[in-house]
Here is the input.
Amino acid sequence: MYPSLSVVIPSYNEEKRLPPALDRVVQYLMNGHYRDPEIIIVNDGSSDRTSEVARGVAAEFTQSNLRIRVLDNSGNYGKGYSVRRGANESTGEWLLVSDADLSAPIEECDKLFTAVKEGNFDAAIGSRALDRSLIGVRQLLLREFIGRTFNVAVRLIAGLPFADTQCGFKLFSRQLARRVFAAQSLERFGFDVEILYLAKKFGFRVVEVPIRWDDVAGTKVATFSGADAFLDILRVRRNDWLGKYD
Ligand SMILES: Nc1nc2c(ncn2[C@@H]2O[C@H](COP(=O)(O)OP(=O)(O)OP(=O)(O)O)[C@@H](O)[C@H]2O)c(=O)[nH]1
Ligand SMILES: [Mg+2]
Here is the structure.
């Protein structure tokens, strides 16, 4: 029996990048081999027409077996908040969290599934760092440098074994998602680190998988939020010391 899959897409001011991305995700799920496919777009207080364009696409599929739902946050609460909300409201046995720009082509989801199946893992996370020959369009050098530095900090401070925790393309089992998102406290860009830290703490098995990736112009991440993510690594350690995850 094929697994059921929910795709969660956190979206902040994505009126331009979301429609072509949704087209591709819809194609993938309609031609694919998943039972009960579902797409959940979490609109995080966008000031543009993200919600309207997403609802427009959803309306085209009300008669099909593909469910498309749009959740509107009442304000801009963060990517971490939005992913948690989408995860909690999704129903699939498996959950793919994907950025709205589809820098990781949706077809790479096959690779994540192959990896979890072969090794009996609870999650597979897409990685830009394991095989850089798979990167087509690279990020600006400064961005890439900050990303690498961030991941060194994650390894040193949070003790995680991964080369890239921040890639917006991750597959979680329902069991892992239920447990980990319930314990999540960080709601902005450091949440990936917390999720992976909690997964490890709770004994789940996570595999990092090299994927194809192309930078797409139009970033929604301000430099300041990037800096705050560094503090998030420390917050994870502090929370654990304080016993907040027990
Ligand atoms: N919910 C929510 N999502 C956000 C916010 N800012 C960005 N996002 C989403 O997070 C995802 C990643 O944002 P991007 O702008 O693609 O980030 P990026 O700068 O390209 O970062 P990389 O793709 O890792 O290089 C997209 O789906 C955004 O819509 C936010 O404040 N809230
Ligand atoms: Mg991006």
About this structure: Residues 223-241 form the longest helix (19 residues). Residues 4-241 form a domain with the Spore Coat Polysaccharide Biosynthesis Protein SpsA; Chain A fold (CATH 3.90.550.10). The chain has one domain: 4-241. The pocket of guanosine-5'-triphosphate (ligand 1) is lined by residues 10-12, 14, 44, 76, 78-79, 82, 99-101, 103, 139, 166, 168, 219-221 (CB under 6 Å).
